[in-house]
Automatic annotation (TrEMBL):
Pfam families: Amidohydro_3. It comes from the Bacteria. It comes from Spirosoma flavum. Residues 290-454 form the Amidohydrolase domain. The lineage of its organism: Bacteria, Pseudomonadati, Bacteroidota, Cytophagia, Cytophagales. Keywords: Hydrolase. This is Amidohydrolase family protein. InterPro entries: Amidohydro_3 (IPR013108), Aro-AA_hydroxylase_C_sf (IPR036329), Metal-dep_hydrolase_composite (IPR011059), Metal_Hydrolase (IPR032466), MTA/SAH_deaminase (IPR050287). The keyword Transcription does not apply.
């Protein structure tokens, strides 16, 4: 349900270009698209225009793009992994993970539907009265839509609070149907991307898996096992992707696939994950057999994690670059789970398109903006010559390129009217310095499709004159001044939705985990002190890793 404001939007102030430089410009957005970008302050006089004149200490960035996120987990508390693993299939079978994350998720999915009737009942009653139907005839299908809406809005809100305007397919990856978008653009909806409606972006969790008849050991005692000889089988998603490529990419406009997620052998030199290495070898072997050698180049393929590739092998780098394959780098999750990550500078030097992704709340960043900040720290600690402009591109231009050169990630005529307005520490601070040092309490507003969907309450109250809902006080001090504008047609109550989430979480953590102190991840990183401490500890871990 992506909508525009219905009114032209004119933004006047400091604007960031593709190199991270700022200059004063005037931007006009109509029907969700940028139509004009002019130098200087030239407020446009149009009927019914919304005028946003920025203060000297405010700056406009393109809306941020996150191609690696499992948004249905955004509300989860941080997971304390019992080990540093070699391969992703190990922790997926770990008893603690299954109890604290997988079963927790299943509990929420099941009981949210069963326990949410108080939330949806007024809507159901209204619909029943309007259509002169018995309430029970409407209950199940309508209630399921309302529950999905409740879950979707809450999980997407964390993204827009961090300046994200386009996210990897919201809710469950690999779902066949186009899932609705409530606040942000969604790679699962062709309309949101401006691509042919007959095509889709295919989001894949696994191309290959261990097996058949083999379960990776999830005991922490086996966390450093040699996985090289694990049996391997293709997942049906690989066949789907391969079929599309062989038929001139007739089904998929782009594909985002998890591949070779495990220990990289970069920070832990000489210790790459064997199964991950074999994943890529098998993947490459099959694709090398495609008769049309140019088809893969047109597939707009992105590999997520891709830690297990042998990046010391020039032919591997050539294969990625020559076939226009992008890589999504998620250093926070990589380091927390595997104590390792990719040699990002080597990829950049070879001309490979690299993006940043936040992964998920249990072991990742709050949002892709926070992932950029950690990536800056990582590059500094390892003395990697990666500029701030390179990092900005990883969450703006590069993911737009990965998706097939969609009209996003830049502030130029013809591009999406998606923006992220940030308050700098001072008027003299550079835009990129502000991006690296300010936190999400300094977000002035986030704009999607020319519509201001999130930001400071005073902006909504004094300039926009649109309906909005405050973030509950329970979200913290910074959140107290923030509001969100949700399409009125959704009949959505944020406070009730969060209360519902909190109630279900308390039930599970108390009854199943006996850990009643566990709480939902707060929406803003600046208000989430447990999350902040986790990132500080990770920086200490990184410092220890590079000593050895």
């Amino acid at each position: 349900m992506l909508t525009s404001s219905g009114r032209p939007l004119c933004i006047v102030g400091n604007v960031v270009d593709s190199q991270g430089r700022q200059s004063v410009k005037t931007i006009l957005v109509q029907n969700g698209q940028i139509t004009t970008v002019q130098n200087g302050k030239l407020p446009l006089s149009l009927p019914n225009v919304i005028l946003l004149e920025l203060a000297d200490n405010e700056v406009v960035f393109p809306g941020l793009i996150n191609l690696h996120v499992h948004s249905e987990y955004n509300i989860f508390p941080l997971w304390q992994s019992p080990a540093v693993w070699s391969n992703r299939f190990q922790w997926r079978n770990n008893e603690q993970y299954l109890r604290e994350i997988k079963s927790f998720k299943d509990f929420l999915d099941t009981n949210w539907k069963q326990d949410s009737f108080d939330f949806v009942k007024p809507i159901l009653q209204s619909l029943a009265t309007e259509k002169h139907l018995v309430l029970t005839n409407l209950s199940l299908p309508v209630a399921m839509r309302e529950v999905q809406k409740m879950y979707g809005v809450v999980t997407e809100l964390q993204a827009v609070a961090g300046g994200t305007t386009l996210s990897q397919q919201t809710m469950k990856l690999e779902a066949d149907a186009n899932l609705p978008t409530f606040i942000v653009r969604n790679t699962g909806d062709p309309h949101d991307l401006g691509i042919p409606l007959t095509k889709k972006v295919f989001s894949v969790v696994d191309f290959v898996r261990p097996g058949p008849n083999f379960d990776a050991p999830g005991n922490p005692d086996h966390a450093h096992d040699d996985t090289t000889d694990w049996p391997m089988m293709r997942h049906p998603s690989f066949a789907d992707f391969l079929s599309s490529v062989q038929q001139d990419n007739n089904r998929y406009y782009a594909t985002i696939a998890h591949l070779a997620e495990g220990r990289a052998g970069y920070l832990q030199q000489g210790k790459p994950d064997g199964f991950s290495r074999r994943e890529f070898i098998e993947f490459r072997r099959v694709l090398d057999q495609v008769p049309d050698r140019t088809a893969l180049k047109r597939a707009n393929l992105t590999l997520t994690h891709a830690c297990g590739l042998d990046y010391s092998d020039a032919s591997t780098l050539d294969f990625l670059r020559d076939n226009h394959i992008s890589i999504v780098w998620s250093p926070v999750s990589n380091l927390l789970l595997y104590g390792d990550t990719i040699p990002v500078k080597r990829l950049l030097d070879h001309g490979i398109n690299v993006c940043l992704g936040s992964d998920w709340a249990p072991s990742g960043s709050k949002h892709v903006w926070d992932e950029l900040k950690f990536a800056r720290h990582f590059c500094d600690v390892l003395s990697l010559d990666v500029s701030n402009a390179h990092l900005l591109a990883m969450i703006t231009q590069n993911p737009a390129t990965a998706l097939g050169q969609i009209k996003a990630g830049r502030i130029e005529p013809g591009y999406n009217g998606d923006f992220f307005i940030l308050r700098k520490a001072s008027a003299n601070q550079s835009a990129l310095d502000a991006l690296l040092t300010q936190d999400d309490s300094a977000v002035r507003c986030t704009i999607v499709n020319g519509r201001v969907v999130y930001g400071d309450e005073d902006l909504f109250a004094n300039t926009l004159a649109v309906d909005y809902q405050r973030l509950p006080l329970s979200e913290g001090k910074a959140a107290a001044s923030k509001v969100v504008s949700i399409n009125a047609a959704l009949n959505f109550n944020l406070t009730m939705a969060l209360l519902q989430v909190n109630s279900l979480m308390l039930r599970y953590t108390t009854e199943a985990l006996d850990q009643s102190q566990l709480r939902r991840s707060r929406l803003l990183s600046s208000d989430d002190y447990l999350y902040q401490n986790r990132i500080k500890l990770l920086k200490t871990t990184l410092a220890e890793l590079i000593k050895h």
